[in-house]
Amino acid sequence: MARSVSVIVVDDHSIFRAGVVQSLALDPHIRVIAEGSSADEAEALAERLRPDIALIDVSMPGGGIEAARAITQSVPETKVVMLTVSENDDDVFDAVEAGAIGYILKGTSARELISAVQNVASGQTHMAPKLALALLARARRRDQVDPQWTALESLTPRERSVLSLVARGLSNREVATTLQVGEKAVKSHLTGIFGKLKVRNRTEATLIAKAYEKQIAEWQAG
Fold first, then answer.
1. Residue 61's closest CA among 81, 40, 84, 31?
2. Are 46 and 100 within 8 A, CB to CB?
3. Do 35 and 111 reside in the same domain of the chain?
4. Residue 205 lies in domain
5. Most buried of 36, 114, 118, 144, CB within 10 angstroms?
6. What is the mean pLDDT of residues 86-108?
7. Quick one: average pLDDT of 55-73?
8. Of the candidates 20, 189, 22, the residue with the CA atom closest to the CA atom of residue 107
9. CATH number for the domain including 206?
10. What DSSP designation does 172 have?
11. What pTM was estimated for this model as a whole?
12. CA 92 to centroid of chain Cα atoms
């Protein structure tokens, strides 16, 4: 790794934080430019210093997941990596949904920690195999208990736009006008939507969409 990588380390356990900083110092290409102990400090440091990587404790005051979400939104160039003792798949899933691209268990060796930072800095994700398996298991369970959500997620961006408008009660012509496409295109998209959602008509599709109003609202906002 030729270029220098700037890192902030945020963890409310000062002894552990010092250990992380000391481990990273073994690599001359990694610079720890600031330390913090809370979610507020993590967000403030990221916005002010715009580091390449933010190493954040999941369970620190204010919540590491919340800090990760805020940083990925306000400083998208900063890559967030979570530090945790938790192997709970819910925590892993929440971290990934918040925008974290790395998840490191506390107790990881200095060599593994440095390797993780190097991987993330080069554009890769990093997750211990055990945690990756937990994330996969969570995804499989979600598919089993919520197939309709899985089907909704499979829609293309255009299909999502069409479904959002149909769920609001717009006709095919009104949808076409709003999206500036032809009615035939709208009908084609609806056919695709019906197939993916395994429904027979727009009414059934709308019922599914209404069950996920929050997600539909996020699609419209996007």
1. 40
2. no
3. yes
4. 147-221
5. 36
6. 79
7. 92
8. 20
9. 1.10.10.10
10. H
11. 0.61
12. 10
